[in-house]
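Quick one, T. Sequence first:
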Amino acid sequence: MTGVNGTIEAEEVIDVHVEHLTEWISATNDPGKLIPYINGLGLRGNYPAEVDVAKNHLYFRLRITPESKGTWVDVLGAPRGLSHPVTFSVGLENQFPFDTVFDSSKPLPLVVVDKFYGAVALVVVLVTLIIFVRLARTTNLIREAAPETDDGRLRPYNLGRTQMAFWFLLVCISYIVIWLITGALDTITSSLLGLMGISAGTALGEAMIDADKMDTKADQLTTLTAQKQAIDQGLSELKSQPSVGDPERLEEARTRQFKITQELGKLAPSGSAPRSRGFTRDILSGGADYSLHRFQIVVWTIVLGIMFLSSTYETLTMPEFSPTLLGLMGISSGTYIGFKFPEKK
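Structure tokens:
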């Protein structure tokens, strides 16, 4: 084999010049059974799209098929740039590839990512990350659903919403990268959908609990306000008609008024609105101190995230998490939701 015209890239057509192809065919060999070899690894099932015997040329479309997927993962996985040099030849399946006489000073580049689409995807990903980080820092995108503070400080970061955003960004960026390299569209696994469902369920359950606490607090505030108004009115009547009341009733009403005023002060929105104390402290503490159940879910999320990135980078496929790992995440999330009930009473 003496020459290759075209780009060595998945789903692209290349023209391969094979010296003495006519003589090889004359020896009762079938050129339709030849396949490309990249770095000595055969692309199984990738037979010539056209054979030009007169010119000793073979035309291949370098398709990613189920038979050749393993080879493509080996040559494209763990990408080190937009392209890298490879050896290329052709040969029969389950045999050795033909010898090549290429100029060693001009290695054949294998295109991993098209420059144009790679640049567009990079811009899209960077803009998305910049917008997300800005919104996360300056708005309540991933913060607690709580009353606004009087001093303008932002609410605390919310663990459930942060976890949901973490998996959304990780899956979205990985999906784009895999599509750029392999052209595959159906890459999201069923277990990954389950994991995203767990994170979404955690955020939803947390939001429902927080909303219930806010409704309970509002009901208490309404009830105490009505009681205070009634006591204030009763005190006014006792003070205006001393003969009707007695010192004991007056003192009891004042004591009750003082207690209700204290309770109203604790429930008042301006005094009870939570304020952010920093990202790490917000997601690891549900009150005054750090919480083990929060620490547990954060650690497992990071561990699974590292496993996800490693698998995607090496194999160009999103991992299939085992039911045991999904169960572990479900237990961590359930424990976190369970501890949300007594938190911040």
